[in-house]
Amino acid sequence: MRITVTTLAITVSLVFSPKLLANERFLFQTQTILNDLNTARNELSLADSYRERVKALSILIQETEESLSDLRSAYRTIKFQSKNLNKDIILQKEIISELAGALLVVGREPLGSKLLHPDGALNAARSSLILSDILEGVRSEARDLNNDLEKLRLLTNLAHRAEVEMQLSLKSIQAARVSLIKAASDRADLPIRFIDDPKKISLLSKSAKSLGQFAVAINSLEKKLIIPVEPIEKDFEGALNLPVEGVIARKFKEEDAAGIVRPGIIIRTKDNEIVTSPIVSTILYAGPLLDYKMVSILEPDEGVLLIFAGLDQVFVKPGQIIPKSGPIGLMGSRNTNSKNFITGKELNSGRLSQSLYIEVRVSDKPQDPFDWFDFNKE
Known about the structure:
This protein is of the alpha+beta class.
């Protein structure tokens, strides 16, 4: 009976040997992300002193958010590994306890019974080998337990550092967005193509029945030109970068849940994502419209309109010429505070909570945005 028990204990210890959960490569990668994020945060604090503040703030915010996203992913892995490691440690302790119990039982046997096995010398030798195997099993499990406890300590420390860095970086990004909004609103370096009539545009926006109708009206509105209309850039069809990073939630002319078909696409993106211009363009309109929240209409070439709807804020004004990758505005947010930023619900949410609607029109006719934007880059 004792032989059966001890043999079972050894088998269990071999089957449930601890897995390598936190390797050096992962720890190094996480450390690199922490360093990058710390550097980006420091650069953000200096961005207000840069000559081209809007461009600098936009780039640094995007870079910091990218590093922050990487750290969130690493943090999820850390928490997952820590959870599994704790389970393994509990199992290892149970195995050691069982093996130690088997050793205790064997150790209580009289010396004579160990030397003179009732089934002969061969079985006595086998019993001695089993005892040796049990002892080695205890030692092996103890070593593995110490290794896993050390890994857990490293993961716990890394998780704490990640939490602190994420909180600091999130606050830094929020402050940088405020600076970006002010810098973009105050900027006077964008060239002006035309001067519009604010009263006419206000009347058009209030009387518009649809986004398409408004786009046609705003495109046909007479403007006081300062710079002659001419193609800003040619041969861009199919090569435009998306104004935000995200995933396609609805394709061109695809019905939504209410059965409504729209001549555009919807991209699900992150909170407070910066919306940028895919190409050098003239701003035809920037402001509220119907139930689309803030809308920006860009004209990269005569007769070609890029319409972005669903923004929370816009930085540009009608008549301005926005450079490629220049910030147009910001998406909204669910007002997730820094304390809730690393909760399990937030970490697993994907955070694609905002929707940007995109239309492309040529000579007032809707086009499939898939033919204009390079989706392979996302």
